[in-house]
Amino acid sequence: METSMFLLFLFIISIHNTEEGIWLMRMTRHSKVRLYQAVKQDQFLFAVIAVTAAAYFVTSMFILFPENVCFKYAYFGFLAAMMLNVLFSYLLGAIIERKYSPGLMTGILLIIPVHTIIIMRAFQSHLILFNGLIIGTFAMSTAMLFLIPLMFKLASKWICFSQN
Fold first, then answer.
1. Transmembrane segments in this chain: where (predicted)?
2. Is the pLDDT of residue 36 over 80?
């Protein structure tokens, strides 16, 4: 598979996280159902940047060391974890709230179709195995579930630039 295919993930997560960064904080303030933890904008943006940086790190390591099983399945696990996030966070949130959930548009138009193509091509070229993808998805989903609250906590101590 061409390296340019793997780089699509970086463009997509950057656009997706920009969409979240612009609107998600305002959406959560007006949410009828408290699906999201109440955090300040600085905390949220710090976490978004951390997740984006993690995506850049994992992708870079996979491109530089494609034979490394950990980097390979971390990369593909990250792709699949983002797809699950679209379905179980953004889509479900939009259905429950009955209004647009920031991140849904880029999730539906970019993450789901492009990540599906990348993963399917990896299977077709025998780059990954199904069991490895499942383990990688579980590992990256778990890592993100721990990373995001940790970044909220660190940001609440380190960053105090806004009053919201």
1. 6-24, 44-65, 71-92, 104-123, 129-152
2. no
Report helix, strand or coil for 110.
Answer: helix
User: What is the chain's Cα-based Rg?
Assistant: 16
- The stretch 89-103 carries a mean pLDDT of 88
For 23, list phi and psi in degrees, rounded to 5.
Answer: -115, -20
**Phi, psi of 90, rounded to the nearest 5 degrees:** -75, -50
Token pair listed for 39: 């955090």
Listed in sequence order, the residues at least 6 apart from 104 whose beta carbon sits closer than 8 Å to its beta carbon are: 86, 90, 91, 93, 94
Tokens of 63: 């491109």
**CA atoms in the 13 A half-sphere facing the CB of 147:** 16
Instruction: Give the model confidence (pLDDT) of 99-138 as tens digits.
Output: 888 899 999 999 999 999 999 999 999 999 999 999 999 9
Q: Where are the domains of the chain?
A: 3-158
How is residue 27 annotated by DSSP? H
Helices 41-64 and 130-158: angle between axes, nearest 10 degrees: 140
For the whole model, what pTM was predicted?
Answer: 0.90
Which amino acid type is present at position 49? Answer: I
